[in-house]
């Protein structure tokens, strides 16, 4: 039995509230159980200096956790000289995930800046961020079409993410903190709506896991991302 009482293939309650932030071109408050993340997407008519003149755009992301998003207060990274390695790794993952479903030439020489701010953390903040960020991104790109800045949305697919792992030897979907901190293996899966694989991050915490166990985790992830896509579509 899982600590939460969920079945092995059951996600936490997932909600996506688009348009949550008044001023952003796109936004979404995403909740995976007790993990809550505010995702906003900002339209920017410039591109990074290294991309200028290439005739295509860019999508990038920033990620952060509020001081009391966890059990004890975290120091604000803004007060530090540099971001932690974890923060940099997660925001790069979010950016890669979103760029995988955008035709940059159709976006033109402009960029979308996505911010994912963790309000409350209970495991799976990166997967919740990616799932909510897609909703914010689509809203932002639709805004660009409505404003007549671009003729059509450059989105070519949707993207969502889920964590799966081995808990007490059994493969399970959507780890919360209690499971993530004690599991034998965990993996984050980033999958597109058409079933493409953007990225898989998998780690054994003790003994190596088998190919059969990995296949079981991938199957759980695929089914979960189908559910997440349906929730994204309904929210939009």
TrEMBL record:
The UniProt entry, under Pfam families, shows: RNase_PH, RNase_PH_C
**Residue positions binding phosphate:** 86, 124-126
- Where would I find the Exoribonuclease phosphorolytic domain in this sequence? 10-139, 158-223
Q: What InterPro entries is this protein classified in? A: ExoRNase_PH_dom1 (IPR001247), ExoRNase_PH_dom2 (IPR015847), ExoRNase_PH_dom2_sf (IPR036345), PNPase/RNase_PH_dom_sf (IPR027408), Ribosomal_Su5_D2-typ_SF (IPR020568), RNase_PH (IPR050080), RNase_PH_bac-type (IPR002381), RNase_PH_CS (IPR018336)
| The protein's Enzyme Commission number | 2.7.7.56
> Single GO molecular-function term?
tRNA nucleotidyltransferase activity
Task: Name the UniProt key words of this record, in alphabetical order.
Answer: Nucleotidyltransferase, RNA-binding, rRNA processing, Transferase, tRNA processing, tRNA-binding
Q: Which SUPFAM superfamilies match?
A: Ribonuclease PH domain 2-like (SSF55666), Ribosomal protein S5 domain 2-like (SSF54211)
Catalytic activity reads: tRNA(n+1) + phosphate = tRNA(n) + a ribonucleoside 5'-diphosphate
What PROSITE patterns is this protein classified in?
Answer: RIBONUCLEASE_PH
One of its GO biological process terms is: rRNA catabolic process
Q: What does this protein do?
A: Phosphorolytic 3'-5' exoribonuclease that plays an important role in tRNA 3'-end maturation. Removes nucleotide residues following the 3'-CCA terminus of tRNAs; can also add nucleotides to the ends of RNA molecules by using nucleoside diphosphates as substrates, but this may not be physiologically important. Probably plays a role in initiation of 16S rRNA degradation (leading to ribosome degradation) during starvation.
Q: PANTHER family, per this entry? A: EXOSOME COMPLEX COMPONENT, EXOSOME COMPLEX COMPONENT RRP41
Q: Name the family.
A: Belongs to the RNase PH family.
- Provide the assembly information: Homohexameric ring arranged as a trimer of dimers.
Write down the NCBIfam families for this protein, in alphabetical order: RNasePH
Report the protein name in the record.
Ribonuclease PH
Species source reads: Aquisalinus flavus
